[in-house]
Amino acid sequence: MTRVLYARPIKESLHLNLKSTVQKLKSNGVTPWLRVALVGDDPASQIYTKNKKKFIEGLGGKCDIVHIEEDITEQSFKAKIKSLSSEKGVHGFLIQLPLPKQLSHLDVGNLIPPSLDVDGLNSLNMGELLKGDMKGNFSCACTPKGIVTLLDYYDIPISGKNICIIGRSLIVGKPLSALLTNRSGTVTLCHSKTENLQYHTSNADIIIVAIGSPKFLKTHHLNPSKNQTIIDVGINKSKEGKLFGDVDFENVKESVAAITPVPGGVGPLTILSLAQNLLQAAEKTL
Ligand code: NDP
Predict the structure, then answer these.
(1) Which residue, judged by its Cα, is nearest atom 39 of ligand 1?
(2) Which of 61, 137, 149, 184 is most deeply packed, by most CB within 10 A?
(3) What is the pLDDT of residues 35-55, one digit of tens each?
(4) Is residue 285 pLDDT above 90, yes or no?
(5) What is the mean pLDDT of the chain?
(6) Which burial class, exposed, middle or buried, applies to 8 when counting CB atoms under 10 A from its CB (0-12, 13-18, 19+)?
(7) Do domains 30-112 and 143-268 have the same CATH topology?
(8) Comparing C-alpha atoms, which of 215, 222, 188, 180 is closest to residue 2?
(9) Mean per-residue pLDDT for 259-285?
(10) Which superfamily, per CATH, for 30-112?
(11) Which residue has the least CA distance to atom 6 on ligand 1?
(12) What is the 3-state secondary structure (H, E, C) of the chain?
């Protein structure tokens, strides 16, 4: 029987803990404050930022979304980010991606001071991840952190397992490969130039797909004798507004031991990790 790995029980089990951390911070005069810079009016980005705000405020924290005009110049954008992120009392700051064309080449992680970088994209935080800071005294990229939270919650072993990640982006694949290596997984990081992808996926105990291609992973990639776990990071929207992952859920579900759904799998855990990073940043100010 295939296990469907939902985010909901994880969120429910950690919610109380996060709330009580916020209460403790508040009793010490600190209200965790996340500031989000949202450039332009991309509908998906608006939904993502609203969800973040709702979650942080639901825990008792503070979140403000600062809207920035779509056609802002690079110079003005950098100045604006500098001023927004230097306001006293802000514990976490993030720039919602994607950015408009004239800004898309920017290294956003490094526009934010490392102590406020709750997305874990600053070079210092990425470096700590590579060095294998097992105490987690840095902000780790949210989606990778959420995936590890999910694997741990469902008692899916990482140590010694073959893990195939498809997609090498800076926000998912690369930091995830470091995080899972730190946890003693044997990681293969695949991408669009990988030859014979099927060879790598069929050898894996855990396959993680983050490529942005709806229903890409199908049964021919799998090896049912290995009782594989499939983690689907993809969020793809059809013309009708329906969400699909990068995995063909209906096609593969009978051939695997466990699989995350889309929606309701990795997505909500990304926000949970963001909240954990924010509270950690706020605790450091005590
Ligand atoms: P990017 O577009 O930055 O990177 C995509 C990666 O996939 C690249 O490394 C690319 O390879 C690789 N790739 C593309 N096509 C193939 C293919 N056919 N075979 C093998 N590799 C391929 O994507 P992101 O990491 O930003 O996002 C990936 C997906 O995850 C998207 O659907 C996004 O919406 C979703 N996402 C979901 C989050 C969540 O919270 N659930 C958070 C972040 C992203 P190459 O490098 O060679 O070009």
Answers:
(1) 267
(2) 61
(3) 999 999 998 899 999 999 999
(4) yes
(5) 96
(6) exposed
(7) yes
(8) 222
(9) 97
(10) Leucine Dehydrogenase, chain A, domain 1 (3.40.50.10860)
(11) 167
(12) CCEECCCHHHHHHHHHHHHHHHHHHHHCCCCCEEEEEEECCCHHHHHHHHHHHHHHHHCCCEEEEEEECCCCCHHHHHHHHHHHHCCCCCCEEEECCCCCHHHCCCCHHHHCCHHHCCCCCCHHHHHHHHHCCCCCCCCCCHHHHHHHHHHHHCCCCCCCCEEEEECCCCCCHHHHHHHHHHCCCEEEEECCCCCCHHHHHHCCCEEEECCCCCCCECHHHCCHHHCCEEEECCCEECCCCCEECCECHHHHHHHCCEECCCCCCHHHHHHHHHHHHHHHHHHCCC
Delimit the domains of the chain by residue range. Answer: 30-112, 143-268
Distance 192 CA to ligand 1 centre (A): 10
Q: What is the pLDDT of residues 109-125, one digit of tens each?
A: 999 999 999 999 999 99
pLDDT grade, residue 137 (50/70/90)? confident
**pLDDT at residue 134 greater than cutoff 70:** no
Ligand 1 center to 284 CA (angstroms): 33
Q: How far is Cα 30 from Cα 273, in angstroms, rounded to an integer?
A: 20
Which residues participate in catalysis according to the annotation? 52, 96, 119
Looking at residue 147, what is its pLDDT?
98
pLDDT of residue 133: 73
Shortest-distance Cα residue to atom 16 of ligand 1: 192
Segment 205-236, tens digit of pLDDT: 999 999 999 999 999 999 999 999 999 999 99
CATH superfamily label, 143-268: NAD(P)-binding Rossmann-like Domain (3.40.50.720)
Quick one: tokens of 95? 């720039």
* Gap between the Cα atoms of 199 and 195, Å rounded: 9
Residue tagged 């990081």 (tokens): 189
